TrEMBL record:
SMART domains assigned to the protein according to its UniProt record, in alphabetical order: B_lectin (SM00108)
SUPFAM superfamilies, sorted: alpha-D-mannose-specific plant lectins (SSF51110)
Coiled-coil blocks: none
Species in which this protein is naturally found: Gasterosteus aculeatus aculeatus
Name assigned to this protein: Bulb-type lectin domain-containing protein
InterPro entries reported in the protein's UniProt record: Bulb-type_lectin_dom (IPR001480), Bulb-type_lectin_dom_sf (IPR036426)
Domain Bulb-type lectin: 25-134
Gene3D superfamilies documented for this protein: 2.90.10.30
């Protein structure tokens, strides 16, 4: 199952039209990324992890549950890297926040939003990081 976000695009004549971007439902795999406004949603649809316009990466249930505490930063994208480190980069490709979960020579890395509202970074079946045990930058 996929979710899309709608955004406006200008064509070659500067006319605006709506377009869709498809993203995975509850996970990012190696080299996948979220841009501002993109989100993951848990399989039970009770949790949403949003990369907000203010640069904060936040898990919501009925209220904010966890945050990267990067509000006001110049973060532009959150990337699941090949080395299993989830990193927020600014437009100059400088890291602003990361999970410190780097493991070289990884075949499969994934960030997943679970049905109990946790973000989990895993390599194969090994959990490397989760939001329940790790706070944001504060």
């Amino acid at each position: 199952m996929f979710f899309s976000s709608i955004f406006n695009v200008l064509d070659e004549n500067n006319r605006s039209f709506s377009c869709c971007r498809i993203m995975s439902k509850n996970y990012l795999s190696k080299n996948d990324e979220l841009r501002k406004g993109d989100f993951l949603i848990s399989n039970n649809r009770e949790w949403k992890a949003v990369f907000q316009e203010d640069g904060n990466f936040v898990i919501y249930g009925w209220k904010p549950f966890w945050a990267s505490d990067t509000s006001g930063s110049d973060g532009m994208r959150v990337c699941m890297q090949e080395d299993c480190n989830l990193v927020m980069y600014n437009k100059s490709d400088q890291p602003k926040w990361h999970t410190n979960s780097s493991k070289p020579k990884s075949n499969m890395c994934r960030l997943r939003l679970t049905d109990d509202g946790k973000l989990v970074v895993s390599r194969e079946s090994e959990e490397l990081w989760n939001s329940d045990k790790n706070k944001g930058m504060k």
